[in-house]
Amino acid sequence: MFAYVRRAQNLSRYRRIISVFVQHGFGSLLEQWGVDRYLLAPARLFRRQEDVEKLSPAQHFRLALEELGPTFIKIGQILSTRPDLLPPEYIHELSKLQDAAPPIPWEQVEAQLVEAWGRPPSEIFAHIEQTPLAAASLAQVHAAILTNGQEVVIKVQRPDIWPIIQADLAILEDLATVAQRTSLGELYNPIDIVQDFSFTLQNELNYLQEGRNADRFRENFADEPALYIPKVYWEYTTKRVLVLERIYGVKIDDIETMDRVGIDRKQVALNAARIIVKEVLEDGFFHADPHPGNFFVMPGAVIGAVDFGMVGHLSHEDRINLVKLYGASVQLDTERIVEQLIRMGAATAYVDRAALKRSIARLLTKYYGLPLKEIRAKEVVADIMPIAYRFHLRLPSDLWLLGKTLGMMEGVGLQLDPDFDMFAVSSPFAQRLMRHMWSPEVWGPQMLGVVQAWGDFFEVMPRAGTKILYGLESGKVPLDMSFDVQRPVMERFDRAMTRLAVSLLLGAFILALALLIPHGLGNPLITALMVLGFLTTVGLGVWFLISVLRRM
């Protein structure tokens, strides 16, 4: 009932969205989804304008999003990081979306500030610039000076934007529910995609979260003098207003000014690369909107960062998986790459493995033999896009966001230093992560989990196994599965299962002891015990192998 009420309230906006997409040539697709049934009028009633310039479908898609306003512009920007959802030409076109808007009058901004603080801004600030430093579709930024003389910037959300965003997200959720029942829903999961967009967009509109992101970056880089994160003035920050320390510097892509003031561009490029690699491989928390306007070069080649609304998160498992994929790619092992993609959930077990392996092999052959410094992350991501779209590789959205982030940062680095090599900077971090991957603190808990699982198995197996064997022997097993088997067959089956279990345990013990020996070299007694245990286990393994061979 609530959904019908909501649909009726937003009917004019529904019609607006559908009419814009139809005018840009997407009417047949919308009719195929059955969207017109929810608008009380068929989509074909909205005719495409004849005088619209002949453009590609991707260009029309971008123009439609721009025409529909802030929610759709933001969604387009998020879609530009998802090559698993759209063809490469759409991704390229959406990357051109610009989030700019005319400034709102100062009177409306002041009303927002009074509502947020419960008092006029003049009681907090000695001065506020009424002309904004920047204006976007969601917010605008004003320079100000606190009564103590501290220069700050005030980021204030547009007063009418939140209801529009909420209504548009509700409409998108309804449309996703409709699309879920079509063939599109079989390939993708529109409801999950819209929920993902909604989560990202609402986080970006929550300035308390943006302030926490800034504080987290500052904490992560407390020992890094090459990055400066402005202070958040929490006493004046709310969900719709953010007050940050103002920083000055040269825009990171303003090469001419850097050369004029004597800033070492190569050092800036090195600092930028080291920062992003640390964010990705060490912290798993990275700035996901690294366009040049968000970074300033301060004296001493220090980089000042702003705008922490869009961030990416990589779990420890994500980072380990990235390193494993990188290792398999370096070895040109297409089989292992496909297995790793399936293990990560990027590809389903039913994917056309042969075709996927061929596509990956062609991609790897293109870069085979090239020095790492000649390989460009942006080019690699562009080559991966068609494969991702063709085989519907569903990597976590943060990994696609990472690909775009690396490409943008690499572009800035090459502007600063033509010899810039992202791989050379990332190599020590990747090697450290690989060493960490094999350390006891990583595989120890995994080994413990395996041992516990085997413990549970051996606790349940005697009862369940006896029941199954009696059932098989009598020709009847649970689930009414009948077998015509004799006792000798079941005895051989029992022995085979026992040998398999013992061999797995012996293999696990040998591997565990082999990995632990190097970590006990500092203590002769522990080393001796480990070596003795290793040799004993190997001896048992040899004895077990001989006994099996004798019975064959």
Structural class: alpha+beta
Q: How much beta, percentage-wise?
A: 5-15%
Are there runs of 5+ residues with pLDDT below 50, and where?
40-51, 479-486
End-to-end C-alpha gap: 70 Å
The tally of helices reads 22
Q: How much helix, percentage-wise, in residues?
A: 55-70%
**Structural domain tally:** 4
Mean pLDDT, as a whole number? 77
Gross morphology is globular
Rg, Å, rounded: 30 Å
> Care to count the β-strands?
13
* Sheet with most strands: 5 strands, antiparallel
Describe this structure as you would to a colleague.
This protein is α+β, with helices and mostly antiparallel strands and 552 residues long. It folds into four domains: 2-99 and 163-187, no CATH class; 102-135 and 138-162 and 188-246, Phosphorylase Kinase, domain 1; 254-437, no CATH class; 440-551. Helix content is 60%, strand content 9%. The protein has helices at 2-9, 11-23, 27-33, 57-68, 70-79, 88-94, 106-117, 161-180, 183-187, 190-204, 207-220, 255-261, 265-283, 316-330, 334-343, 353-367, 377-391, 397-416, 422-437, 440-473, 487-516, 524-551; strands spanning 125-128, 134-135, 139-146, 151-157, 227-228, 241-245, 250-251, 285-287, 295-298, 302-305, 311-313, 476-477, 481-482. Strands 1, 2, 3, 4 and 6 form a five-stranded antiparallel sheet that branches. Strands 5-10-9-7 form a four-stranded mixed sheet, with helices on one face. α2 runs antiparallel to α4 (57-68), α14 (316-330) packs antiparallel against α15 (334-343) and α15 (334-343) packs across α16 (353-367).
